[in-house]
Amino acid sequence: MEIIKRMQDNQHFGRIMLVKILFLIEYHLRVKGFNSNYKRWDHGPFDNQLINSVEYNLKKDGWINIESEESKNYDQKVYTPTQMAYEKSHYFKNSWGELDDEIEQILSIFNDANSTQAEIIATVYAAYNDLLIEGKEPSEDEVLDEILNNWHPNKKKISEERWRSAYRWIKEKGLVPTGFGKSTKEAA
Question: Which domain of life is it from (predicted)?
Fold first, then answer.
């Protein structure tokens, strides 16, 4: 709910971006207890069960309204916080207050991003992180190979240079994975 409130000014914010933000909060901040199961979907790491649960519970408890908008290729979810979401801000502070600055840093990455940029950031992070989970210290080329050849064929629609740029950008921003969490690769 707090993420949704803080991201209201981004016209591209919706389901895809929310999942990417949740992924980075969990994995980069090393938060345990999400019980997530991110997999390699065409638009990056995605946990369908987690996002369905988040949406269902926030709506059921009266924290947000959810509308669907038809966009070019998919159904875009639009989240609108209710008045109760603003009145109950102290819930976030009580539960997550000690991570507020770190969460705000992650949210700031997405302030001006669109869904494709969010997908790229999270995909680079996840591919890099998966290789670390496997005990490798991957090079830029190995991370790109993981994305372009071991993820989803749609990843090749994005130029290699754009992937390289994103890899370098996350390193510049200090958004470097540590091998935390479960791999996004399907179990063999």
Answer: Bacteria
